[in-house]
Amino acid sequence: MAAYVISEVEARDQAAMQAYRTLAAETIAQYGGRYLVSGGAADVVEGAPPAKTIIIVEFPSMARAREWYASPEYAEALKLRQTALERRLMFVEGGDPSQSL
């Protein structure tokens, strides 16, 4: 079952953000992930706070997503992340759409 890594991000340093983005994209591809949403405009229709930049990456499974996050390759990108951006990160298992709210 597919799994999704959902990030809400706010850039702190544009140069570091670009370096992080490059490294992260390479490792995501290496672990079978693919970007579904990458920074398009987001409009909060209900609830708060206002939307930040949203990124959604799909992995073949939750195990693969967690393997990517814990990988030595992604660890290099994580070192940059602290300077590059503030982030809220969520891992979400894909589910049966017929069971949605």
Architecture overview:
The chain is α+β, with helices and mostly antiparallel strands and 101 residues long. It contains three helices and four strands, in the order βαββααβ. It has helices spanning 14-30, 62-69, 72-84, and strands at residues 3-11, 34-38, 53-59, 85-93. Helix 1 runs antiparallel to helix 3. The two termini are 19 Å apart. The model has no long low-confidence stretch (mean pLDDT 92).
Write the layout of secondary structure elements.
Layout: E1 3-11, H1 14-30, E2 34-38, E3 53-59, H2 62-69, H3 72-84, E4 85-93
Antiparallel strand pairs: 1-3, 1-4, 2-3
Helix pairs in contact: 1-3
β-sheet strand percentage? 25-35%
Tell me, briefly, the overall form.
flat
Cα(first) to Cα(last) distance is 19 Å
Number of helices: 3
Number of strands: 4
Can you tell me the residue ranges where pLDDT is under 50 for at least 5 consecutive residues?
none
Radius of gyration: 14 Å
Backbone structural class: alpha+beta
In short:
This protein is α+β, with helices and mostly antiparallel strands and 101 residues long. Helices cover 38% and strands 30% of the residues.
Which properties best describe this structure?
single chain; 101 residues; alpha+beta; four-stranded antiparallel beta sheet; 4 strands; 38% helix
